[in-house]
Amino acid sequence: MSLSAPDLAMAPPRHAFVYLASQSPRRQELLQQLGVRYELLLPRPDEDAEALESERPGEPAEAYVQRVCQAKAEAARARLNTSGYVNAPILVADTTVSLEGSILGKPTDAADALAMLTRLAGREHDVLTALTVVDAGGIPLPVVLSRSRVRFASVSQDVLRRYVETGEPFGKAGSYGIQGRAAALIEHIEGSYSGIMGLPLFETAALLQATRIDF
């Protein structure tokens, strides 16, 4: 059934782009893969972005990543409200790695990265990515959770050490990037490859369509 002229006039406006509240080059690449136009909406120097990712004692990984995503969405909307930028929806995501209930975040240094990778080697773990879109009215859509299962190969400390020396683990949950050199260390995945990268494309496309982003 086609819409009449009055129906079309009452339909919510479409948006030419979305704000991406993330510094991750991988998320930018994935949006480009979908053909989505975006503008970065990054934390200001006076914002303590790292504090939003602080863990709470005993908090399950699923609850943690969804809570952090919601907190980032609230911070991003407040940032837009005070920026003077054009109003548009905001895409927010957060990714964490969970090994037998333990949350493996971003490594603090090379020793921390090596310790995480040593724990992952020869075992399976979950990669959880939570995402949401704050619509143009400032209302966040329900957080969507993508879960994938990854099996790391049993590799030597020398192999892991050489990987850490590349610098690739830094800034990445679990100390590895599946789209980079770590691909040679991963035996098998179940779930969303793009979700492991940090932005599950199927769920992202659905959220963007729900908020009328043109792509």
Account of the 3D structure:
By secondary structure, this protein is α/β, with parallel strands linked by helices. The chain has a single domain (15-210), classed as Maf protein. It has seven helices and seven strands; from the N terminus they run H-E-H-E-H-E-E-H-E-E-H-E-H-H. A hairpin with a 2-residue loop joins strand 3 (90-99) and strand 4. Helix 4 packs across helix 5. It starts with a helix and ends in a 5-residue tail after the last helix.
Tally of DSSP β-strands: 7
Summarize model confidence as the mean pLDDT: 93
Name the structural class. alpha/beta
Instruction: Please indicate the percent range of residues in DSSP E strands (runs of 2 or more).
Output: 15-25%
Question: Shape, please?
Answer: globular
Radius of gyration: 19 Å
Q: Number of domains in the coordinates?
A: 1
Instruction: Tell me roughly what share of residues is in helical segments.
Output: 25-40%
Question: What is the name of the CATH class?
Answer: Alpha Beta
CATH architecture heading? Alpha-Beta Complex
CATH topology: Maf protein
Describe the main β-sheet briefly.
7 strands, mixed
Element-level helix/strand string: HEHEHEEHEEHEHH
